[in-house]
TrEMBL record:
Annotated PANTHER family: CYTOCHROME C BIOGENESIS B-RELATED (PTHR30070:SF1), HEME EXPORTER PROTEIN B (PTHR30070)
Name of the protein: Heme exporter protein B
Listed transmembrane segments: 42-60, 66-91, 112-133, 145-173, 180-201, 213-236
Family: Belongs to the CcmB/CycW/HelB family.
Keywords: Cell inner membrane, Cell membrane, Cytochrome c-type biogenesis, Membrane, Transmembrane, Transmembrane helix, Transport
One GO CC annotation: plasma membrane
Signal peptide: none
Places the protein is found: Cell inner membrane
Biological process per Gene Ontology, one example term: cytochrome complex assembly
Described function: Required for the export of heme to the periplasm for the biogenesis of c-type cytochromes.
Membrane topology: Multi-pass membrane protein
Species of the source: Cobetia crustatorum
InterPro entries reported for this sequence: Cyt_c_biogenesis_CcmB (IPR003544), Cyt_c_CcmB_bac (IPR026031)
Pfam (any one): CcmB
Length: 242
């Protein structure tokens, strides 16, 4: 498959003159184009998410009251695993074809360029999961009043999952079978996001205020946006140059 250059020619001039915004936009656009050419890989996390939610009532019980009780945790665990499923390929294609080395050599700040790549991953994985969740929540008997909180919590939390997961993906990109190691590295870091994400939906189901949980998810996202790009950049340098 033909690979695009790291920064498309139409945008390379703007990037070479020091326009950081142009470089980030070029990186994001390139990743989105490449992902859309691999539609099967793009659909896999979404299909996994839908299958887990669909099969769960068949394996446990069709009782609506029981499913509504379990739905917040189930949806969040399924979304977490679906995100994890898509992380191994975040930097691997670029590593295999040498584009990752070009990324490390660009004059623009590496943490901001990898942030653009993580945003692309979230747009193709986390955001679709958040949009799909209410449709699948109907199958689990989730009250319609909780749909807004479910989408908001997944939108905030999935971006944090992408940022945290990208750290593990950067550290294991040079390994042939780094999927298991990636899971071991980042799953413990996912636990706080899982707790407060599911807690927000549980509060909405119980008719309690969910804003405190969403606020904590927002604070986690702000912290991840500040620190994760630096850790991702360091992990990539270690994997490629170490």
């Amino acid at each position: 498959m033909r690979r695009e250059p790291l920064i498309p020619l139409a945008e390379s001039n703007a990037a070479s003159t020091g326009s950081l915004g142009a470089a980030m936009a070029a990186t994001l656009t390139r990743d989105l184009r490449q992902a859309l050419r691999r539609r099967s890989e793009l659909i896999n996390p979404l299909a996994f998410f839908a299958l887990v939610i669909t099969l769960f009532p068949l394996g446990i019980s069709p009782d609506k009251a029981l499913l509504a009780t379990l739905a917040p945790g189930l949806v969040w665990v399924a979304a977490l695993l679906a995100t994890l499923l898509s992380l191994d390929g975040l930097f691997r294609q670029d590593f295999d074809d040498g584009s990752l080395e070009q990324l490390l050599l660009t004059p623009q700040p590496l943490p901001l360029l990898v942030l653009a790549k993580v945003v692309g991953h979230w747009l193709l994985t986390g955001l679709p999961l958040a949009l799909m969740a209410p449709l699948l929540g109907v199958m689990l008997g989730l009250p319609s009043a909780a749909f807004g909180v479910l989408m908001a919590s997944l939108a905030l939390g999935s971006m944090s999952l992408s940022l945290i997961g990208a750290i593990g993906a950067a550290l294991t990109v040079g390994l042939r079978r780094g999927g298991v190691l990636l899971s071991l590295i980042i799953l413990p870091l996912y636990i706080p996001v899982l707790i407060f994400g599911a807690g927000a939906v549980q509060s909405a189901v119980a008719g309690l205020p969910s804003l405190p949980h969403l606020a904590i998810l927002g604070a986690m996202l702000a912290l991840a946006l500040l620190l994760a790009p630096l850790a991702i950049a360091a992990g990539l340098r270690l994997s490629v140059n170490g």
